[in-house]
Amino acid sequence: MDAITPLPPVSGLVLAGGRGLRMGGADKGLVDFRGRPMVASVLERFAPQVAELMISANRNLDAYARFGHPVFADDMADFAGPLAGLKAGLARARHELVATVPCDAPLLPPDLVARLLAALLREDAEIAVATAGGRSHPVFCLCRRALLPALADYLAAGGRKVDAWQRSRRRVEVAFDDAAEAFANLNSPADLPPAG
């Protein structure tokens, strides 16, 4: 009988560094969702899928720290976007693989990391990205920590588009059409899922 190769551990990174402009300037992760901050639901669903959790935030760091995980700001000025948060997370991750989710995804799939990891390993890709309903969702991804130098170079050259950077790497897309609601954009209070 063949020995089963254990899956590599994955670091988890919650991206909470945005300005929340479409949410009226509110910090999306701290917006109320079913009686508690939205990020609490994200962490609850994400924690069982990863070996460590980190939060990238550019404001309200003390509020995020109350959830008991390391919190850090981008090392770039002016809210440089999700890639700046990813760069900071890759630099701090304890494991060679890092999964990311946004702070406003309280319905993320419970098998997100497992499915991304299976595809990344099967295809020997550098990045695995979730898709649903024919759309790519680039901040729901799994990437190799070894990409840190390439990401730093992209950001230093002025690049900010997550999808463009990911497409420049060995990337595999992973369909989550069975969980499309998990990837809904929550950009305004009206977008929040109903209680229930």
From TrEMBL:
InterPro entries: MobA-like_NTP_Trfase, Molybde_CF_guanTrfase, Nucleotide-diphossugar_trans. SUPFAM superfamilies: Nucleotide-diphospho-sugar transferases (SSF53448). Its EC number is 2.7.7.77. Monomer. Its cofactor is Mg(2+). This is Molybdenum cofactor guanylyltransferase. Transmembrane segments: none annotated. Belongs to the MobA family. Keywords: Cytoplasm, GTP-binding, Magnesium, Metal-binding, Molybdenum cofactor biosynthesis, Nucleotide-binding, Nucleotidyltransferase, Transferase. GO terms for biological process: bis(molybdopterin guanine dinucleotide)molybdenum biosynthetic process. One of its GO terms (molecular function) is GTP binding. HAMAP family: MobA. It comes from the Bacteria. The N-terminal domain determines nucleotide recognition and specific binding, while the C-terminal domain determines the specific binding to the target protein. It catalyses: Mo-molybdopterin + GTP + H(+) = Mo-molybdopterin guanine dinucleotide + diphosphate. It is found in: Cytoplasm. It is an enzyme of class 2 (transferase). Residues 12-164 form the MobA-like NTP transferase domain. Mg(2+) binds at D104. One of its GO terms (cellular component) is cytoplasm. GTP binds at L15, A16, G17, K28, D74, D104. Transfers a GMP moiety from GTP to Mo-molybdopterin (Mo-MPT) cofactor (Moco or molybdenum cofactor) to form Mo-molybdopterin guanine dinucleotide (Mo-MGD) cofactor.
